[in-house]
Each structure stands twice: as C-alpha cells, then as structure tokens.
Amino acid sequence: MFDLHPHASQPVRRAPTHLDFKLGRNGKGLPPSLEANHDDYLVELTGDDDPANAKSWPIRRKLRTAVVLGFDTLIASWGSSVYSAAVQPVGKEFHVGTVVSLLGLTLYICGFATGPLAFAPLSELYGRKLPVTGACFVFTCFMFAAATAKDFQTLMLTRFFAGVFASCPLAVVGGAFSDLFGNETRGIAIAAFSSLVFIGPFISPIAGAFITQSYLGWRWTEYITGIMGALAFVLDLFIMEETYERTLLQRRAGYYRTETQNFAIHHISEVYIFCVPFHVSEVMRHYEQAPNMEEVVDVKDLFNKHLSLPLKLLFLEPIVFLITLYTAFIYGILYLFLEAYPIVFAEKRGINEAVATLPYIGLVIGVLVGSGIVIAFEPRYNRKLKANNNIPVPEQRLLPMMLGAVLFPVGLFWFAWTGNYPDIHWIAPTLSGIMTGAGILTIFLQALNYIIDAYLVVAASAIAANTFLRSFFGAGFPLFATQMFNKLGVDWAGSLLGFLGIAFMPIPFLFYIYGERLRKHSSYAPTDFGKKKDDEENQDGTSGGVEERKGGEEVGEESGGSSTALDA
C-alpha cells in the first residue's frame, strides 16, 4: 500500500516528460512523472476482513443482498411464462393464430440468448449493481409497454426486449453469489438461486391463469409483472450493495485520489484502453515503456472472449457440445410443459383452465427436491476438493446428475401414460412432476457446474455457448408442443420425449468414466491446472486478461464449491 501523507522532508521529485505534445487550449504539457515506485500507489485488499471483500461481510448483510438478487431472478423467470396464460386471449384480441400468439413467449426467451452477451462483460467492467439495477428499470418499462400495447407487433417487440433485459440477473447473479459466498456455503446459495430460475416458470402460469380468467384480463399479467419489476428496481437501488471486489477497490482508489489530490493512486484494473485496431499500435507506442501496465482491453480481446471463443468451445469440445445439447433439451422440456399441462388437465380431463394449472405445483416440489439432492452432495464434493488441494474435481459433480438422468425419463413416461386417460385420477400425472422437476434441476445445475470445473479459465465462454443454444431450444419447443400432443396423443408424444431422455441418459455416466481422459486432450481444459498456456493461446481469448495470471490456487478457490453455475 501507499503512504497517504508522505513526510514533508521528502517532497515528491518530478522529472521532465519525454512526450512531445500539449494538452488543452492553453497548451499545457503533461505533468512530470513521479519517481516513486508504481506499486507504491496501488490500492488492494488490506486483508481477509477488508470490507471490499464481500465474503468477509456479516451473514445478515450478505443475505440482504442475496435475497434482493434472488427476487430479481424470480421476476426474470416469472416474466417468461406468465404470458402462457395469455396466449388464447391475445390471439382473439389481435386476430392471430395460436402459434403466432405463442411468439410472445418464444421471443422473450430469445431475449435470454442475446442479453448475456452484453451483461456478462458489463458486470466484469462496472460491477454487479449497475447492470442489474439499470436492466431492471428498462425491463419494467417494457413490461408496462407490453401491458398497454395497441397492436400485436408492439406486444411482440416489447416482450422481446423485456426478455433481453430480464436476462441480466440470470447472467450476473451467479457471479454476485460467488463474490458473497466461499466454497463451503456457495453450493447451497447457488442451488437456491437455481431453484428460483426454475420455480418462476412453473408458478407464474398458475397466477397468470387466474388473472386472465378473472375480470382483470390478460393485460394484467404484464401489469403485475411490471409492478414486481418496479419493486425489484427500488430494492436494487436502496437495499442491494455492490459485491464485486474490483469495483469496490476502484471506488476506494477514486476516493483516495480525491482526498489526497494524488492521481497516481490507482487499482490494478483501472488502466483500460478501449480502441479500434488501427489505433492500437499508435497508443501502444506511447505506453510501451510502461512496465506496470496491468490491463489492455481492445476490440480483438472482446471479440475473442465473448463471441469467437464460445463458438469454438461449442463445436470443437465434445464435453461442451454434449452437455450443452443435453441441457438445451432439458430447457426445452421446461417450456414445452407450459403447453402440455393444459392439454392434459384442461382439454383431456375437462378441468377449469385456471384450476388445470395447479398441477404445476408437482413440478415446483420436484425442483425443491432436486435442490435438496444437490445440497446433500455438497459436503462430499467439498471433502474431495480439500483432498485435491482445492483444485476442482469435475467428475465428482456428475453424481447428482446421474441420479437426475434416471429420474427425468421416468417422470416423462409416468406423465405420458397416466395423463392420457381421464379415468386415472389427476393426482397420478401431477405426482410425476416431482420426478421430472427433480431431474430437471439436478441435470441442469450439475451439468453447468461440471463445465465450470472442467473449463476453469474459459468457463464464462463455455457457459455463454450453453446459454445461447439452450435459449433457442426453450424458445422453439412450445411452438410445436400443441401439434405434437394432438397428433401423436399424450401417451406417445410424452413417450417420444422419454425415449430422448433415455438417449441422453448415458452422458453423465460416460463423462464420469472418460471425462478426465478427454480433458487431457483438450487445449482449453487441462487436467494439470498449474501449467501455463503459451502466448498464442492467451491471445486467442483463453485467459480473459488478468484472470489467467491469478495462478492455479487462486482460481481453484474461485471455482470450488458450486461456483458460478449460472453466471451467463
């Protein structure tokens, strides 16, 4: 650290600058450089109990911020499926077919695919609070715009952009939880966060159905979501605290600069250069003599890290491709059920449309059971982690996923062959949701955790690829759900999905056996975590800047526990 009040007998000595240009209208030259060591003015953590380290906060302070972030996540996922109850009324009001009316659901989910490409890097540059709060405000505006839409195209556009900004908490909250919780408690926090991601799409159709069946009408599904967004915005503004260590230290450095008028004080991440390629060489010519320049971020870095690298991982890495395909299928089933359940309980059994949504409670219970299964395996994983010197053991993540891979198709077959026959009590297909929901949560969460542990340095890019593909599956599946269940029947349509679940079932078992061998042949997921990559790999976007220079032990710590499974 630096001395804020240097002794008067040792005034700062200045040397003339070698740069030959002037600043401002008066032609003032650059101030002479300080002769003190560059690192003497570096702001960094003072210890483990430093308030800039959110892990050191009291538990009540952590929970206050975590609850607000959880509420943001719930609203984002709520908004995606509350529209499902409005599909028929919207079609009647604007004179469009059911499939066209469903675009309000699918476009919102398509927004989930595009939003993280912006919000994930923004959260790394400006912290967690600013993107979440700003996105929540814009999301609220678009939801009220959807509620007051005068024509169909306006409704579709506002739903899409609401989905784009709703994706912010899904991309950022996992990272914020990683800021707040250490290895031993992060698994529980991330499991709770993941539960909210899946509970939202299952409880909002229930509320939406009763709203549309009442005198309020379909527009109030959007109004109520907008009111919830406004409440979340107020909580983000006044209750949520910034958790990102880099941003907190940047603010501290800015405060010290203002108080001392010593503008050499800085944080390691404050030396950014954003420039187009033909300016890079000119700027670097002036800075090539600066040995302590910590970070340079240019257009090429951003392209490689957030656009090019995710596609390379998706199509060149077997682990990423198969896991992504599996989770995309699971995500598609999640939203396909928004159309399948009304067919089974309302059309086949003649139950009132609002009451026919209550069987979603079975899926909600299943998600909670799946969350409990993941939490139950956390102590075992933490023991393996400590025995491996805090270096992640990716294959150990697959044990709950193996259980979920069996439960999921069993739940699908159960639903298919009990839901098709009205003489079978309604409780039978409802209870199938417990197994299906538990399978969805355990497969989805542990698959993403496996990717993170296996691809530590490039985990964010791997998750970005996963998010991109699975969002399009979630958007596409509801479009053909009604036709599939009507043409094939509930029994064989559900069985088709069950057979696909069986086809995917071996994935976690195969990776548990052969995963380490595959990682040894990967240039992105080395089993020897301590080995360094060469400069070409670094320039290819595999490091993400400063993160690679942290070293094995530090990144291993960050990726331990459940880490940031839903960062993107």
From TrEMBL:
Species lineage: Eukaryota, Fungi, Dikarya, Ascomycota, Pezizomycotina
Membrane topology: Multi-pass membrane protein
An example Gene Ontology CC term for this record: plasma membrane
Subcellular localization: Membrane
Major localization listed first in the record, in broad terms: membrane
Protein name per UniProt: Putative transporter
PANTHER family: MAJOR FACILITATOR SUPERFAMILY, MULTIDRUG TRANSPORTER, PUTATIVE (AFU_ORTHOLOGUE AFUA_1G10370)-RELATED
PROSITE patterns listed in its UniProt record: MFS (PS50850)
Signal peptide: none
This protein's record includes keyword Transmembrane helix: yes
Source organism of the structure: Lachnellula hyalina
One GO molecular-function entry: transmembrane transporter activity
Keywords: Membrane, Transmembrane, Transmembrane helix
Cited InterPro entries: MFS (IPR011701), MFS_dom (IPR020846), MFS_trans_sf (IPR036259)
SUPFAM superfamilies: MFS general substrate transporter (SSF103473)
Pfam families: MFS_1 (PF07690)
